[in-house]
């Protein structure tokens, strides 16, 4: 795949690093996290307790925050965002296979799904080397898009949780249907379903078994919703990692803040994107550590505000919960690494995660924009490549390449 970005990654990194420097004093005070250990100068002297509130750009909230007893406006806003997210995901219709295969982002969705499959499969294998009965927490399970992956991984128990109640019901129904289709000696895991806002509710008090411990917490395309405030991001981490057994993994996928800022800084406006996705920030040049909101739109699927997750900060915060980062790759790096494995390559084909390309003008291509296949045309021009070539349209590739995969391991 061609590199579709122009400006240097370091520039975006610099913007965010400067931000960390400015805000680290506040953060240290609020959280007890020592950012100096990461090499940032914490003693800038001009951060105050109120700076996080000002990040929310809500003047009323800013004023009220001066009164430590009164956090009403902030709370209202947080509830508002959680509800908006839940309402959005609740309203999303479940789409049948027929309709899905006609979608403009058919291959993009499959590609993202392949990425999750490989990641999940790999960490199940790692745990299985140590034990056979695997218990998993699917944090932000949605409508149960990963249920089959857990079945394939032959786990013993799954706890599914999401803020959107209708999604949780649909996830449960999907599980019951799967179970109903099981033949005589077919195996399926036990499951439990919980509706909760994982940025505010403590999941530990909601499990059927209060002593449950997980081997894996999987958080796919969810964690960024928590970065509205430090408290919310920390609560989601607590939920993700608090009940993990030593040696257990917190794995997930989330937008890569460096990539987002890189694209934003390269744009002439406050937004960027193409015909399948768009991202709109409130402003450029100021990226608070928490509450750095942007509107994310993905054709047919997502249209909600999200929050920038500055990954080095997540890494620091995770340490407080006994977690160590053991794996982090951009989607591009992950694809390039995993495609070398024949099994993953075959799965990519089976899941139709790449579009078969032979020539532009083929009416079956998802995009009718010639530019969208320039990279493929270039690749096959010497006539040596085997056709059809597996690829993604440029617009889909741009959309998927904003993400990264991560894995943290619980320390003994
Ligand atoms: C993009 S969907 C991903 C769903 C699923 N993990 C998947 O990969 O198919 C994001 C999910 O995160 C859930 N979510 C967002 N904020 C949440 C919160 N505070 N607590 C729990 N779930 C949340 C949404 O309701 C939605 O189902």
TrEMBL record:
Residues passing through the membrane, by range: none
Gene3D superfamilies: Vaccinia Virus protein VP39 (3.40.50.150)
Annotated catalysed reactions: a 5'-end (5'-triphosphoguanosine)-ribonucleoside in mRNA + S-adenosyl-L-methionine = a 5'-end (N(7)-methyl 5'-triphosphoguanosine)-ribonucleoside in mRNA + S-adenosyl-L-homocysteine
Compartment annotation: Nucleus
Keyword Disulfide bond: no
First and last residue of the signal peptide: none
Binding site for mRNA: 112-113
Source organism, top-level taxon: Eukaryota
Ranges of compositional bias, category Basic and acidic residues: 1-31
Positions with a binding annotation for S-adenosyl-L-methionine: 116, 140, 162, 197, 220, 225
Site (mRNA cap binding): 143, 149, 174, 224, 306, 403
UniProt-listed Enzyme Commission number(s): 2.1.1.56
Primary enzyme class: transferase
Main location: nucleus
Domain MRNA cap 0 methyltransferase: from-to ranges: 103-411
Biased composition (Polar residues): 39-59
One Gene Ontology term, aspect cellular component: nucleus
Region (Disordered): 1-82
Keyword set, alphabetical order: Methyltransferase, mRNA capping, mRNA processing, Nucleus, RNA-binding, S-adenosyl-L-methionine, Transferase
A Gene Ontology molecular function term of the record: mRNA 5'-cap (guanine-N7-)-methyltransferase activity
Summary of the function given for this chain in its UniProt record: Catalytic subunit of the mRNA-capping methyltransferase RNMT:RAMAC complex that methylates the N7 position of the added guanosine to the 5'-cap structure of mRNAs. Binds RNA containing 5'-terminal GpppC.
Similarity comment: Belongs to the class I-like SAM-binding methyltransferase superfamily. mRNA cap 0 methyltransferase family.
Name this polypeptide is given: mRNA cap guanine-N(7) methyltransferase
């Amino acid at each position: 795949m061609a590199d579709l970005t122009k400006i240097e990654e370091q520039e975006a990194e610099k913007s965010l690093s400067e931000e960390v420097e400015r805000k680290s004093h506040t953060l240290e005070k609020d959280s007890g996290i020592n950012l100096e250990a990461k090499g940032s100068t914490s003693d800038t002297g001009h951060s105050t307790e109120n700076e996080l509130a000002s990040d929310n750009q809500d003047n009323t909230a800013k004023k009220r925050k001066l009164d430590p007893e009164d956090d009403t406006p902030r709370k209202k806003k947080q509830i508002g965002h959680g509800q908006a997210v839940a309402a959005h995901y609740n309203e999303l219709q479940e789409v049948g296979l027929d309709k899905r295969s006609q979608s403009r982002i058919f291959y993009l969705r499959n590609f993202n799904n392949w990425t999750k499959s490989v990641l999940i499969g790999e960490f199940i294998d790692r745990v299985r080397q140590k034990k056979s009965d695997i218990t998993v927490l699917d944090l932000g399970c949605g409508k149960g898009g990963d249920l089959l992956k857990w079945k394939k991984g032959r786990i013993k128990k799954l706890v599914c949780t999401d803020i959107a109640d209708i999604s949780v019901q649909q996830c449960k129904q999907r599980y019951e249907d799967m179970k109903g289709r099981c033949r005589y000696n077919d195996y399926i895991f036990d499951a439990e379903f919980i509706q909760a806002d994982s940025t505010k509710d403590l999941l530990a008090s909601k499990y059927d078994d209060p002593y449950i411990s997980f081997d894996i917490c999987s958080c796919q395309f969810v964690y960024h919703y928590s970065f509205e405030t430090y408290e919310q991001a920390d609560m989601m981490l607590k939920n993700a990692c608090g009940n993990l057994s030593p040696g257990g993994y917190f794995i997930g996928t989330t937008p890569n803040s460096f990539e987002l800022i890189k694209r934003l800084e390269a744009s002439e406006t406050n937004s960027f994107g193409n015909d399948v996705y768009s991202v709109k920030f409130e402003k450029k040049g100021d990226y608070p550590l928490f509450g750095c909101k942007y509107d994310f739109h993905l054709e047919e699927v997502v249209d909600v505000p999200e929050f920038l997750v500055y990954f080095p900060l997540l890494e620091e915060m995770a340490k407080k919960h006994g977690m160590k980062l053991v794996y982090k790759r951009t989607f591009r790096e992950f694809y390039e690494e995993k495609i070398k494995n024949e099994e993953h390559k075959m799965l990519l084909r089976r899941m139709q995660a790449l579009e078969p390309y032979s020539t532009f003008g083929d009416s079956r291509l998802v995009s009718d924009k010639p530019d969208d296949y320039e990279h493929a045309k270039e690749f096959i021009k010497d006539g040596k490549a085997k056709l059809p070539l597996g690829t993604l349209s440029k617009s889909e590739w741009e959309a998927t390449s904003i993400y990264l995969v991560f894995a943290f391991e619980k320390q003994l």
